């Protein structure tokens, strides 16, 4: 069992190092310091969906509720944001997915970043103390395809982010709804009205 765990760790480590400019050098450095965070290039083995931290956390709860696979995602402690690792090339159709999901206009739209961007991810071994970034869900070596960990599917992610946005965003009050609320506030409640007399 111990040998299997080491093999899976090395598989995920090799997949992460493939997103660096010098994979062999990166792997050697990570072996020297297992707590070292990793700067990875996007668009090589994965893209990232970047959004508000609370939205990503809520979307992951919904994905789990709908029994959808949960791929790697990271939370940034110094920012109010989180990043979900999604299949490479997701950025090409991400705008269309967001448009189809009826994203609430009052919230910033999640962005999908690919080639030309980079992300800092934590080590696979949890740090004794909290760092700048931590895993919401770490890469799972047991659920892998061709040596790559299972990633969150873009379509259910977009839908769950949209649903999370509708749940978390404050309801926008139109001038009409404000007027109705003002009228209701000055009218007596039905229980305070005298009951009609019967003849």
Structure description:
By secondary structure, the chain is of the alpha+beta class. It is built from six helices and nine strands. The chain has helices spanning 2-17, 23-32, 53-65, 90-100, 154-168, 175-186, and strands at residues 38-41, 46-52, 73-76, 81-87, 111-113, 118-121, 133-137, 144-145, 148-149. A five-stranded antiparallel β-sheet has the order 5-2-4-3-7. Helix 1 (2-17) crosses helix 2, helix 3 packs across helix 5 (154-168) and helix 4 (90-100) crosses helix 5. The protein is globular. Mean pLDDT is 82; it is low at 1-8 and 176-187.
Order of helices and strands: HHEEHEEHEEEEEHH
The unreliable regions are 1-8, 176-187
Helix content: 25-40%
The largest beta-sheet arranges its strands as 5-2-4-3-7
Let me know the largest β-sheet: 5 strands, antiparallel
The shape is globular
Rounded to the nearest angstrom, the distance between the terminal CA atoms is 86 Å
Q: Which whole number gives the mean pLDDT?
A: 82
Structural class of the helices, strands and pairings?
alpha+beta
Number of helices: 6
How many beta-strand elements? 9
> Compute the gyration radius: what is it?
23 Å
Strand content: 15-25%
């Amino acid at each position: 069992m111990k040998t299997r765990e080491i093999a899976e760790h090395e598989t995920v480590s090799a997949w992460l190092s493939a997103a660096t400019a010098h994979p062999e050098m990166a792997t050697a450095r990570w072996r020297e310091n297992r707590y070292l965070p990793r700067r990875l290039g996007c668009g090589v083995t994965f893209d990232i969906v970047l959004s508000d931290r609370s939205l990503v956390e809520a979307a992951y709860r919904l994905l789990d509720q709908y029994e959808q696979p949960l791929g790697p995602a990271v939370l940034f402690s110094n920012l109010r944001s989180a990043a979900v690792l999604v299949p490479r090339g997701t950025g090409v159709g991400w705008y269309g997915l967001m448009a189809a999901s009826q994203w609430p206009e009052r919230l910033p739209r999640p962005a999908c970043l690919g080639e030309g961007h980079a992300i800092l991810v934590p080590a696979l071994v949890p740090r004794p103390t909290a760092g700048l970034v931590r895993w919401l869900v770490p890469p799972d070596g047991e659920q892998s395809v061709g040596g790559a960990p299972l990633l969150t599917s873009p379509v259910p992610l977009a839908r769950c982010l949209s649903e999370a946005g509708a749940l978390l965003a404050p309801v926008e009050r139109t001038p009409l709804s404000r007027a109705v609320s003002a009228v209701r506030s000055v009218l007596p409640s039905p229980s305070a009205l005298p009951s009609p007399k019967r003849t």
